[in-house]
Amino acid sequence: MSAPLRQAVVDLDAYRANLDLVRGWMDPVEVMAIMKADAYGHGLEPIALAAVDAGIRWIGVLTVPAALRLRAIGVGEDVHLFTWQHDPALDFRDAIDSALDLGVSNVAELQRVVDAVDHRPARVHLGVDTGLHRDGSSLDDWPALVELARDAQRAGRIEVVAAYTHLAESSDEDDATAVSLFDRAVEQAEDLGLDLPMEHVAASLAGLTRKEYRKDMVRMGANLFGIPGADGVSAADLGLEPVMTLTASVAKTKRVSAGTGVSYDYTYRTSAETTLALVPVGYADGVPRLAQGRVEVAIGGTRYPIAGRVAMDQFLVDVGDDDVRVGDTVVLFGTGEHDETTVLEWGEALDTIGEEIVCRIGPRVPRVYQGHSVEGRVGAYLRGEHA
Q: Tens of pLDDT along 159-193?
């Protein structure tokens, strides 16, 4: 039987198993499941519904529109949806009315939130920049942000839920300095009369390796998808299960002679008479052009390197004299259980991280969901029966 032209198989049971494992490690600290970038390319709605069914009550989705998508499919207000990157022109009214948790980093942003409040207070997390220099208030501007938040809360306009920061994870010393700055900012807020009920600092790597940084909640992303961020650590080392397997089918085969140039620029030439197999996945689907000669794919349990330039829609592999036929399944990356390449190996081969690889997988690659977790609300959503 022929394999699908291309597909990304998402194992929701693996995702749920990773959730259970990580929550056990973090206990009694709360876990926020991070699902930015369409749940790291796995599909936001099915992943979120699977997480909610597993008992997750905090989800991070980066933007207000992404969070509103989840409210629209029935993720109720018992699940806190945290967003922290806001369009400067965003009208916060829908976000406030939908009880979204809004990460706020400066006075102007907070004032826009306060001005948008109508019949219910806005839920606000105050961000502190402790050295990453992306999100968060500078330490110089922090007192003014705190004072506005304090006054707005006293007026019933907002509910301050938490203070948060993000670590650079460049070294233990740098992270220790960042946490010390965060702790001082929290103390300063309390001195200014603002109570901060929760604190969240650590993301996936720091959450795993530095228990003292877990505070009240840890934001977990890549680990939940079976993509650990620690150098030299595999998913199997931690007991995590890779969630996505990327496959395609052999679309064509062609017998060629020795010395044949392959794909654009003839950067690869065959060393002997051989068979070339065409795989219908290219850089438009997320396979980097740099994968040539660096990455191996598996056909029938045998690994073959990508031969020649990766094109927009396809690449070739040199399979020698092996009996490879049209319709055979090509595993680009998977769990590694059958000696196929894993997404971590892709990252290492391409001098990047596994997260980048899965986030690259484009929309014309269908996501196919499997596992016992494809039931209940997940199954209803996939059948188009959601609210």
A: 999 999 999 888 889 999 999 999 999 999 999 99
23's CB contacts (< 8 A; 6+ apart) are 31, 55
The question of whether 36 is a catalytic residue gets the answer yes
How is residue 155 written in tokens? 């007026």
Per-residue confidence (pLDDT) for residue 207, from 0 to 100: 79
Among the listed residues 252, 254, 264, 266, the single catalytic one is 264
Give mean pLDDT, residues 187-204.
95
Q: What would the pLDDT profile of 264-318 be if each residue is shown by its tens digit? A: 999 999 999 999 999 999 999 999 999 999 999 999 999 999 999 999 999 999 9
pLDDT bucket at 230, cuts 50 / 70 / 90: confident
Residue 5: both structure tokens together: 């032209």
Look at 333 and 212; give whichever has higher pLDDT.
333
CA 98-106-170 angle, 5° bins: 100
Token pair of 82, please? 């945290």
Catalytic residue among 36, 215, 266, 268: 36
Query: In which band, very low, low, confident or very high, does the pLDDT at 27 lie, cut at 50, 70 and 90?
Result: very high
Q: What is the mean pLDDT of residues 324-337?
A: 96
Residue type, 189: A
Is the bond into 197 cis (omega within 30 degrees of 0)? Answer: no
